[in-house]
Design brief:
16% strand, 8 strands, single chain, binds adenosine monophosphate, alpha/beta, 224 residues, five-stranded parallel sheet, three-stranded antiparallel sheet
């Protein structure tokens, strides 16, 4: 089964995707994490991507698609993936469909999380991320048990430079311009499920479950 999770920055995609991926045995593929990791390792791709990320812009499609396809070719993604932060443009959505079709697979569901702009900016401003396992926390809404340490792995927490207010505002504008058409793409094609992301984490999780549940018990073979 392949699933994409769509929505603006700060809506909770990462938090929800991690939980769903674990539960459904899917590889959690977050292109933002892949780019940040490449930037930390100072690879050529990482250096190119950082230029765009620091400004709150999208990395060019050819780089994003290359990064995604390389990750999808890894063994743990063979049984299906939960894509978090990809696709972000129509070109990426089409490239994904083509790549999955060559493996006899398709995006079964597009989970679409929404929340008002002010909620998103407040969430992004208080966000802390684990350097080691990328788990996300919020200093008010979802604090770690020990300040500055990840509950899951004990790793150090940091704040993303692109979570600063001006850059976060730009990321939201870019989302509206370039990624909202992707939502319409899945709406037309079928499989889009909209969930209110402006609720406590557990409530969002519950609604996502409800959206995924019937599909799990439908008995339809995946990828057909
Ligand atoms: P995220 O962690 O998903 O918020 O992504 C952080 C940044 O990585 C974005 O603002 C983009 O600069 C870049 N990025 C992540 N995924 C993509 C993608 N699919 N296409 C283009 N840029 C991306």
């Amino acid at each position: 089964m392949d699933i994409v999770i769509l929505g603006p920055p700060g809506v909770g995609k990462g938090t929800q995707a991690a939980a769903i991926a674990t539960e459904f045995g899917l590889a959690h593929v977050a292109t933002g994490d892949l780019f940040r990791d490449a930037a930390r390792r100072n690879t050529m791709m990482g250096r190119q991507a950082r230029e765009y990320m620091d400004r709150g812009e999208l990395v060019p499609d050819h780089l994003a698609v290359a990064m995604l396809l390389e990750r999808l070719s890894q063994k743990d993604a063979a049984r299906g993936a939960l894509l978090d932060g990809f696709p972000r443009t129509l070109e990426q959505a089409e490239a994904l469909d083509e790549a999955l079709a060559t493996k006899g697979r398709r995006v079964e569901k597009a989970l679409y999380l929404t929340a008002p702009r002010e909620t998103l900016l407040n969430r992004v401003a208080g966000r802390w991320i684990c350097k080691d396992c990328q788990a996300t926390y919020h200093e008010v809404f979802n604090p770690p048990a020990v300040a500055g340490r990840c509950d899951a792995c004990g790793g150090p927490l940091y704040q993303r430079p692109d979570d600063r207010r001006e850059t976060a505002e730009r990321r939201l504008d870019v989302y509206l311009e370039q990624t909202v058409p992707v939502v319409d793409y899945y709406r037309r094609r079928g499989g889009l499920v909209e969930v209110n992301g402006d609720q406590p984490i557990e409530a969002v999780q519950h609604d996502l479950h409800a959206a995924l549940g019937p599909q799990q018990s439908s008995g339809e073979p995946a990828g057909r």
